[in-house]
């Protein structure tokens, strides 16, 4: 029989992690949006890292960016649903599943950061451009995207390697 563990008694520390991601994301986006022209590029670590202001009207990798505008509300709604689910679910996570809770909090902060952009501006502000000279370019991204990617990696690691250990007596 699976071992039932009590849920986390203090989700506030995980909400605080989400808040840190959200604040860092929004402050950096404001900085780049106010100090750069669209597509302006500044070398940071040539030839692999630039700051480049870009607007993403779609989702990851500009998915559906060329649509008529309905995608703004679709992705904003999807982000709000994910944020609501995580906000509620994080209270149910077992106390010892810290890595899972941290992963969820990173996704939460990132999701809210990108939803704010979609609602306020109609697009997501991106500025981190990883590339190799003019040979290879990764899509431009932001702090929210970093939080989402690292957070989902932690969630998947927990699912694959730690979840079973928590349920075995």
Count the DSSP helices. Answer: 4
Terminal CA distance: 8 Å
Mean pLDDT: 90
Note the run of SSEs as H and E: HEEHHEEH
Main beta sheet:
4 strands, antiparallel
Ranges where pLDDT stays below 50 over 5 or more residues in a row are: none
Task: Determine the fraction of residues in helical runs and give it as a percent range.
Answer: 55-70%
What gross morphology would you assign? globular
Strand count: 4
Within the largest sheet, what's the order of strands? 1-2-3-4
Q: How much beta, percentage-wise?
A: 5-15%
Any overview of this molecule?
- The chain is α+β, with helices and mostly antiparallel strands and 169 residues long.
- It contains four helices and four strands.
- It has a four-stranded antiparallel sheet with strand order 1-2-3-4.
- β1 and β2 (49-56) form a beta hairpin.
- α1 (12-35) runs parallel beside α3 (98-121), α2 packs antiparallel against α3 and α3 (98-121) packs antiparallel against α4.
- The radius of gyration is 18 Å and the shape is globular.
- 33% of the residues are buried.
- The model has no long low-confidence stretch (mean pLDDT 90).
- One of its GO terms (molecular function) is aspartic-type endopeptidase activity.
- It holds the Pfam family Peptidase_A8.
